[in-house]
Task: structure prediction
Amino acid sequence: MKKFSILLFIVFSLNAQEFDKLYKEAEKLELQGKYKEANKIYKEIIKKEKTINSIYIDEDKKSEITAMKDTIDEVDDKETNETIAQIIASKFDIYPHHENYFFPISYDTNKRSDGRDSLETKFQLSIKKPIIHDFFGFDETINFGYTQTSWWQLYKDSSPFRETNYKPEIFVTIPYGKKDKTSLKAFTFGFLHESNGQAEPKSRSWNRIYLESYFQVGNLFAVPRVWYRIPEEEKDDDNPDIEDYMGYGDFTLIYPYKKHTFKALFRNNLKFDEDNKGFVQFDWTFPFFNSKNTFGYLQLSSGYGDSLIDYDKEINRINFGISLSR
Result:
């Protein structure tokens, strides 16, 4: 499995020929299955990046950073200069986690009795921050993640935010196996909190630990996940029956094809009687005016658990808009 670290640590100030040589050497070692040796080269690239006191930034901002560095005075302390460069570049290794999207059209096909409009706006911000890599020697990465999803009654007169769900988490991802040797590619396990920040009686929250695995067959990826809800005291539990609707895990299929991605998520409480409850969601992202980092996005969903406030209500939703990550 090709190391994602090469995407994170390329720096524009490296000598192009020297970098090319290092990269090709590392790629050759990866093809031979010599991942430890390849990782040493990546670490060498990182070391060079630190030595020359530079920070990678995309092409759109590179000229701005160069101009700023030409005007800022250097100080005598090397570490202080590195901090100044980091501030100028606004580069703190924060990356997309789940999809970041904006749906100006989010339509619930079921009529509600609480006065909400069926047509609203939905958007999501999701980021992660790598904390430490290979601390335990398994090539693992410990991450902090944060996802915030909001449902906004934009088309009502006062345009209130109807609901916002907050999901901070800490998780560890461990790569597994070798390229072309096994379909199992990685494991992730973590702790996830989810709440909506509202007062009673609309308050909802729960805490979970989860285990997720990643499988690849060609360009099809399968991601099963199971979780365990951490018990709460009865007097503090806003939603004691949430597992009856959200179940104990989910299963995701992802199929990238050329510049499109197709995704399906399935969730079920596995009660094979009249108490069966489930959820299914289909996502399609597609090219958006030849943009490299913005995509058209169509999302269809049906079932229970659309949001925390509606975890026990069946909702059929059509969403359309743009995504900034996938």
Observations:
- The chain has two domains: 5-89, 95-323.
- The CA atoms of residues 262 and 284 lie 5 Å apart.
- Helices lie at 5-9, 16-31, 35-51, 59-71, 78-89, 242-246.
